[in-house]
Amino acid sequence: MSNAEVVNPAQLAKVSKLFEMLDDPGRLRLLQGGEQRRHSAGSVICREGEKGDEFYVVISGRLKVQADDFGNAKDIAALGPGAFFGEMAVVGNQPRSATVTVEQDAELLAFGRAIVEEILRDYPTVRTALGKIGVKRAEDLMQKLSGS
Ligand code: CMP
């Protein structure tokens, strides 16, 4: 079964800013290029400092974003349905800025670099928006770390 059958693109557009930014053909293309995965609580999806080639959209569940603060894991953000993460490494070609762990059993859509690049090439406004969100998140992360 393809992702387009498992996850309804119109539904995703209502809950996910990323999908909202695309038109119908773009949503379908992105969705078909993704892989739906289930993860149980405790699973680490990406680790701070590591190389990252995947980008994720949360379908269900809850995840926490943490960053190293002089040897302690500091909570930076919580991500729920519709949120996306992993854009900073994939779009910005940089190591993972934070560790993302599943807090409540989660269903994710995972996208490889190739499909993300393809969509960003064809939807420059999405590239700009993702870049801005990445900058905001990086600032927020630094603020939370330096504020300890
Ligand atoms: P990336 O650096 O690829 O991997 C870790 C991800 O955590 C990062 O992309 C963002 O998607 C996410 N992230 C980092 N900082 C924040 C933040 N301040 N708020 C929400 N998500 C964040």
CA-based gyration radius: 15 Å
Largest sheet: 6 strands, antiparallel
- As a percent range, the share of helical residues equals 40-55%
Summarize model confidence as the mean pLDDT. 91
What proportion of the residues form beta strands (DSSP E)? 25-35%
The tally of beta strands, per DSSP, is 6
Shape by Cα distribution: globular
* Assembly type: single chain
Question: What compounds sit in this structure?
Answer: adenosine-3',5'-cyclic-monophosphate
Order of helices and strands: HHHHEEEEEHEHH
Low-confidence stretches: none
Structural class: alpha+beta
How far the N terminus sits from the C terminus, by CA atoms, comes to 47 Å
If helices are DSSP runs of H or I spanning 4 or more residues, what is the number of helices? 7
Please give the structural blueprint.
Layout: H1 3-6, H2 9-15, H3 17-21, H4 24-32, E1 34-39, E2 44-46, E3 54-69, E4 72-79, E5 84-85, H5 87-92, E6 99-112, H6 113-122, H7 124-146
Antiparallel strand pairs: 1-6, 2-6, 3-4, 3-5, 3-6
Task: Summarize the structure in words.
By secondary structure, the protein is of the alpha+beta class. The chain has seven helices and six strands. Strands 1, 2, 3, 4, 5 and 6 form a six-stranded antiparallel β-sheet that branches. β3 and β4 form a beta hairpin. α6 (about 115-120) crosses α7. The relative contact order is 0.21. The model has no long low-confidence stretch (mean pLDDT about 90). Bound molecules: adenosine-3',5'-cyclic-monophosphate (CMP). Adenosine-3',5'-cyclic-monophosphate binds near residues 77, 98 and 100.
